[in-house]
TrEMBL record:
This is Selenium metabolism hydrolase. Its cofactor is Zn(2+). The keyword Heme does not apply. It comes from the Bacteria. Keywords: Hydrolase, Metal-binding, Zinc. GO terms for molecular function: hydrolase activity. The keyword DNA-binding does not apply. InterPro entries: ArgE/DapE_CS, Bact_exopeptidase_dim_dom, Peptidase_M20, Peptidase_M20_dimer, Peptidase_M20A. Signal peptide: none annotated.
Amino acid sequence: MLSDVVRLTQDMVRVPSLSGDEARVSELVAGRMREAGFTDVRTDRNGSVLGLIGPEDAEVALLFDGHLDVVPVVGDWRFDPFGATLHEGRLYGRGSTDMKGGVAAAICGVAAAAREGKLTRRVGVSASVLEEVIEGHALGSVLDLCEPAAVVICEPSKLEVRTGQKGRLELLLTLHGKPAHAASPHLGVNPLHAAARALLALEALTLPTDPVLGRALLVPTDIVSSPYPSISMIPSATTIRFDRRTLSGENADDVLGEVRACLAAHGIDGYTLSITDDAVQTFTGLEARPSRWLPAWSQPEDAPLVKQAFEALTRAGVAPRSGCWPFCTNGSESAGRRRIPTIGLGPGNEEDAHTIDESIALDQLEAAKEVYKQLTLLACAA
């Protein structure tokens, strides 16, 4: 007979939930939280589900957070991507690792801790939306509701403690030109030439390095001219989108200033530089334009939450290990913006996220449930 954490993961994977279309899985999770004994379950304005358990007049000691949305299915899969097939000790399906397995383990682990009757403080599980589109935006409204003392991001980490992550800043560099007929290019100013020079200059830019998080990155991800296509005409502008992976202590003004200084040193002018704020819409109909400035964060391994996580892993029979994430998570909101003590700790391999035949090991799900149970008990004993 399948355990509760495996069955819940299967049920969640079988509900497709692209970003902005999480209504069905949100309803499923809310119902399962109530069945598991969570005494306060609510769906916020974005559609994220928050379940709380423990003494109602106590503070929220710990919040486990995971997201419900998944990336699109691409390529040829061995198994139905929404079939939640069990095969040779693994559960296959889109979102199994990233990250419905982590959400299921948190729900089941916290509920198991509560059944022991030892919770002296409240503990919550957040099943948030839209994370694959914009990290941290939806978690913000959940944090407003419960104000936890600490947060665990349940993204896949091989059940190793992640003590930090790089941040993300999405930039638009628009080079302005002067349109002219392509047969008379000397009458115009071609912004593509400036774009080429800017790409080469910024590729050679020396970026900062952090002893924990490693080297910052600046990666061009797309380029488009206006108008597009520009048939038989010098375009009036060309825009390059950059993904800048940031380090602890960097802020948006620092990064913008660094790019401007580099462009000036190479004689490039006639441009605008901005941070993206593309519109998003939740399945509840709420619209927003969140800034794509997601701060990095890190904390020392002797921080109380890290020590508790190591103890919980030891109690669960898992060797404690630590590291950092190179990618961005909802921790940018809890730790990066709000300075709430935060760690990452989740089942599954990061490398399996967003892949064809995404899957998660069943023993990782079971171990995560036990780790979360022990961490809940430790948080309530503190």
